[in-house]
Sequence to fold (107 residues):
Amino acid sequence: MGILLTENAAAANGMSGIVLVLYIVFFIAFIYFLMVRPQKKEQKRVDNMLSQLAVGDSVLTTSGFYGMIIDIDDENNMVIVEFGSNKNCRIPMNKTAIAQVEKPDAE
Fold:
């Protein structure tokens, strides 16, 4: 009788180890699909947007200013953006400070 109890306990202990491993695998997959994958997808979208910048594009910066790109320096990862209607406010900034890009309409 004592041998049967130990065999049952050992089998139950082995089963609980498998269940624990399955829970860990499920948790890691859940975290990946909930957090890591969407972040990679968003980073890919931003990289694509920044790689297609061109002179004359209207941009919205991360600080909320609207302007127009007048020069691009790919070597230093910089752009020069012109703000305002008087055309005197030109500010160099990092490309990563651009939140949205609007291409000029081709007419």
Notes: The radius of gyration is 28 Å. Residues 29 and 76 are 38 Å apart (CA to CA). Residues 1-51 form one domain.
